[in-house]
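This section describes the prediction task in plain terms. A model, or a person checking by hand, is given the sequence of a single protein chain and must write out its three-dimensional structure as a string of tokens. No templates, partner chains or ligands are provided. The sample shown here is typical of the held-out split.
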Amino acid sequence: MDIAGMAKLASSIAETGTKQEVGIAVLKKAQQIESSTAAQLINSITAVPAPQNLPAHLGSKINTTA
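The expected answer:
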């Protein structure tokens, strides 16, 4: 039985698990930042003001014969 080989394999497996944990943590942080940014963008949208003093028929039809 090769003790050194087994130790190297165990170390490699532990290192891979640690890398995956770090990758998952970074992904979760990126998702939190993206969610926060999207919420800020949505909250920054202002309501469109209603048109002022325009007749009721304006903007209700599209001229398709032009």
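For orientation: The helical segments are 3-44.
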